[in-house]
Amino acid sequence: MSVQEFFAMGGYGFYVWTSYGLTLVVLAANVVIPIRQRRQFLRQQALKQKR
Prior knowledge:
Layout: H1 3-8, H2 13-50
């Protein structure tokens, strides 16, 4: 089995690698978005406390 055959996946490579890519994007977003929201929330709370 060559590397080219591995990436082609019997003609379904485009669909397989696209689904892996989309899954990776969704998983990364599930990590990054809550972190950003928490930082924004803490900044807002700090501003409210200063007032």
